[in-house]
Specification:
It is a single chain. The chain has a domain of 71 residues. The chain starts with 9 loop residues before the first helix and ends with a helix. The relative contact order is 0.08. It is elongated and about 100 Å long. The chain contains 7 helices and no strands. Helix 1 packs parallel to helix 4 and helix 4 packs across helix 5. By secondary structure, the chain is mainly alpha-helical.
Amino acid sequence: MARPKLNIDPKLVQDLASIGCKTSEIAIVVGCSVDTLDGRFSEELAKGRENLKISLRRWQLEAAKKGNTSMLIWLGKQLLQQTDKIEQVQEITVRETLTPKQVQEIIEADPFLLKSKTETK
């Protein structure tokens, strides 16, 4: 003989989901298993969670309208695909001892490199 169906208020399930309760928490409140909620009340759980998302978006937009710069930046990144531009500059200094032959090759390749300041004026 199967157990009798529990009398669970669908609106209560949805309301609890809309304030962010986990399914396991809702199960404790209404006195059933998580499997029962997932099986019989999946629509109410989904709708409640979607209502929570809508409320959060509304609160975020209100905070942004009031000048919350962190919220403005976050919403810009989430909704407008804005990003922080990070510029990295790296300077590398390589010191190498040149042989006299290498110095001669450099001078022959570009004789203007070693002109004195007085010669270039």
